[in-house]
Amino acid sequence: xxxxxxxxxxxxxxxxxxEEIGLILDTAISMKEIASRDIKKVPTLRGKTIxxxxxxxxxxxxxxFEIAGKWMSADVxxxxxxxxxxxxxxxxxxxxxxxxxxxxxVVVIRHSAAGAPQxxxxxxxxxxxxxxxxxxxxxxxxxxxxxxxxxxxxxxxGLKVAIVGDILHSRVARSNIFAMQKMGMQVRxxxxxxMLPRYxxxxxxxxxxxxxxxxxxxxxxxxxxIQLERQxxxxxxxxxxxxxxxxxxxxxxxxxxxxxxxxxxxxxxxxVEISPEVADGPYSLILNQVENGVAIRMAVLYLLxxxxxxxx
Amino acid sequence: MRILIEGGRVIDPANKVDAVLDVCIxxxxxxxxxxxxxxxxxxxxxxxxxxRGKVVCPGFVDLHVHLREPGREDKETxxxxxxAAARGGFTSVCCMPNTNPVxxxxxxxxxxxxxxxxxxxxxxxxxxxxxxxxxxxxxxEIGELVRAGCVAISDDGKPVMNAEIMRRALEYAGMFGIPxxxxxxxxxxxxxxxMHEGLVSTELGLQGIxxxxxxxxxxxxxxxxxxxxSHFHVAHVSTAEAIRLIREAKAKGLHVTCEVTPHHFATTxxxxxxxxxxxxxxxxxxxxxxxxxxxxxxxDGTIDAIATDHxxxxxxxxxxxxxxxxxxxxxxxxxxGLTMTVLVEGxxxxxxxxIARLTSGPARIFNLPKGTLSVGADADxxxxxxxxEWVVDxxxxxxxxxxxxxxxxxxxxxxxxxxxxxxxxxxxxx
Lengths: 312, 430
Hints:
The complex is a heterodimer. Chain A is an alpha/beta fold. Chain A contains 11 helices and 9 strands. Chain A has helices at residues 18-35, 60-71, 92-100, 116-123, 139-153, 171-182, 211-215, 239-246, 250-253, 276-279, 286-305, and strands at 49-54, 75-80, 106-111, 127-133, 160-164, 186-190, 206-208, 220-223, 261-263. In chain A, β3, α4 and β4 (127-133) form a beta-alpha-beta unit. The model of chain A is unreliable at 308-312 (pLDDT under 50). In chain B, the strands form 3 sheets. In chain B, strands 1, 2, 3, 4, 5, 16, 17 and 18 form an 8-stranded mixed β-sheet that branches. Chain B has an 8-stranded parallel β-sheet with strand order 6-7-8-9-10-13-14-15. The longest helix of chain B has 17 residues, at 212-228. The model of chain B has no long low-confidence stretch (mean pLDDT 96). The interface between A and B is medium-sized, with 26 and 20 residues.
């Protein structure tokens, strides 16, 4: 059982309370300190087994979970489905039951189908962490984004954020909208009308289809990756036009607040949704996000898998 | 063989009957309906069913079921599907042509009818395909299908997307006086959608199917019904916009009819929040705005019939990620309970109107000699307890499949006995 989270699984931010989010962010502060040490190892999760079950390619999320587990002395096993029984047609149910028989403590799953982590959570005694399911949720990404913002601004409540890009297909957008609203932030979304789901306004967010007014007076601009393969699929004509209409460059940034923070969950398409000058500029938090990703995943693993000793 | 159903409240909407009457069945037909028992000089009945305090009505007629035979006998067979029908009070079912092979020629129709005659629990009326192989390209041999016993044509889950083919199908079917059933869905708009496009799909990140995907095809085909003068029937209507279009078409006097499923009026897309694949069907469960419009359509008579779209699938097919699971649920055994609980208790329909939507309504629009207790008619009779409470337990289903979102629901209104052509095919114990 977790030390502080009274739940077995982390499937999304939609069902997290503000207190739970606060606990995870606070725990991540001490986890981040470990990363600055010369010897990056604590015994917190010694004897615990974490399985990374990734049905979709991922570099940063999988590596981040793996490092987080290893720094806390857990045994971390990576399964990528291209080299597993999944290619032989094994169902998610059978994969889940097979893993359960090996008594893992945590299974981290990424899957292209929304709701796959829910299926796994229902089958396993182990804690299940959603590392991204379809266009549904990616809770640890939202938590690390909140952590990064709070680190820079000292608070979350009252801040304004604009999330720009392909909202329709973005699990990062959904998890952030739910989590940010719970923490008292005001959320705007902006993108081509074809990539803004209808009924977005009923989630309590402001909807923009022009980037200039969307970013004008916000504290944070979060740019989303435009998936290259969506070009020509009927949602937008070309990357060139997308970049012209929605790309964030220095010129556009003039309309924003002086100290606006720039975020991006990665991987970025330089020169498409974000210009190199902005991505590498002084207010870009893109690499802070990656760094904090490890701390947040350590916190989540610790709070769910329940270490015996305190992290430090 | 004589059966006397004694003392029940007989509701026969086709004849506008609602009175406490005895029903006498002889040699498979309705022999007499009367306030008094049959004359004393008649031989005593072989069987007396006590229906005091109960409702006696024509057997239900389901315009839309999938019996899966031939081809997918692991999901359902004509034997198990018709048993499920009997338990649900249905004495006649129209089975869709998406079997394997497709029912697009007389030999498949004859096979289905032969199996149904030999082993089926209720009457089976096959629906033939509109086009060969349901491919939407060439008309099937519709004349031969009708001659072999098909009562309508439909390409079912594969809507006819080509307006020219649909126009010709309506014209051609018009020669035989049979309806052309359309599963109204613009496949381009649906794309890879797996649930209703709305607030819930927005939150869950599941790809949405807009309500307009149904309505644009309904609108198109109403225009084609106007052009051809033929009978256009909309299967499982699910949206407010489609209801509005059908209401306007009927007001204009066009030959347009439609059916609604119990799951579309009893549940909403909120059921998808758990990612339960038993909430996945086509058309998808809609939002409450659409459900309210369906209820208005039932009340004002825009909707002619309640049909189940009984769609059995195996456990392993449904035990998958939501995106990958097949569409559909079983529905024959829960249809009456849901109709009573949601529509009659909910004051959408009176008991008489509800029974009409399950009997005379569907029989009339498909020209079936069923759905009535007229003297001389086939003795297809259902005995109901409209107030009895029961809990849905899919493990007890007569279907081969278990894919119902209503497992565990408490319903009011239960089927006590089902009689097909004078034979008791189902009786509730206890």
